[in-house]
Amino acid sequence: MYSALKEAELAFEEDEVPIGAVIVHNNKIIGKGHNQVQRLNDPTAHAEILAITAAANHLKSKYLIDCDLYITVEPCLMCSGAILLSHLRSVYFSTYEPKLGASGSVYNVLEKNKYNHNIKIYSGIYAEESKALLKSFFLKKRLNKN
Is residue 14 annotated as a catalytic residue, yes or no? Predict the structure, then answer.
C-alpha cells in the first residue's frame, strides 16, 4: 500500500485527485498508476484502470487471477467493473469514498457470491495518510478558487 500512496503523491504533484494504485503478482509490482484524468482529458484515466492495463500488458492476459490490487481510495463503479472483469484475487484500499464508492460505502458491487468468482476486499490500510492527502488536495483547490 505504501507504493500506492507514493503513486497518489505523484497525482497530487500533477494537480490530479491524489489516488494511486498498484497491482502485485508473486510479490512484485507489475502495474501501477495514479489519476491522470486532467492530464489526459480522459474521465476513464483512474489510477485503478491504468494499473490494470499495465498489469494485463505485463502478463499478456486480460485476467489477473493471481494478482492483488492496492488502492488509496475505495474504487468507483467504473473501476469496480474493471476489477471484476479482470478477475483480480484481492482488493486492498485505504479509505472509503462516501460519494462514489462502490465497495461498501455507496454501493457494494464487489460483494461476494454475485459473480462466478469472488474477490477478497480489505480496507483501512494507510487510511489516515490517504485521507490527509485528499483533504490537503481539496483544501488547496478551494483556496485557489478564492
Answer: no
Q: In terms of Cα–Cα distance, which of 138, 88, 142 is closest to 115?
A: 88
State the pLDDT at residue 114. 77
**What is the tens place of the pLDDT at every residue in 72-109?**
999 999 999 999 999 999 999 999 999 999 999 999 99
Contacts of 70 (CB under 8 A, 6+ apart): 1, 3, 4, 21, 22, 23, 24, 92, 93, 125
Choice among 7, 13, 14, 48 that is catalytic? 48
Give the sign of the dihedral formed by CA 129, CA 81, CA 91, CA 58. Answer: negative
Residue entry with cell 464508492? 101
Instruction: Summarize pLDDT for 55-72 with one digit per residue, the tens.
Output: 999 999 999 999 999 999
Question: Grid coordinates 505504501 are at which residue?
Answer: 2
Question: What is the rounded average pLDDT of the residues 127-139?
Answer: 96
Helices and strands, number each (H, E), in the chain? 5, 5
Q: 137 vs 2, 11, 14, CA distance in Å? A: 19, 10, 11
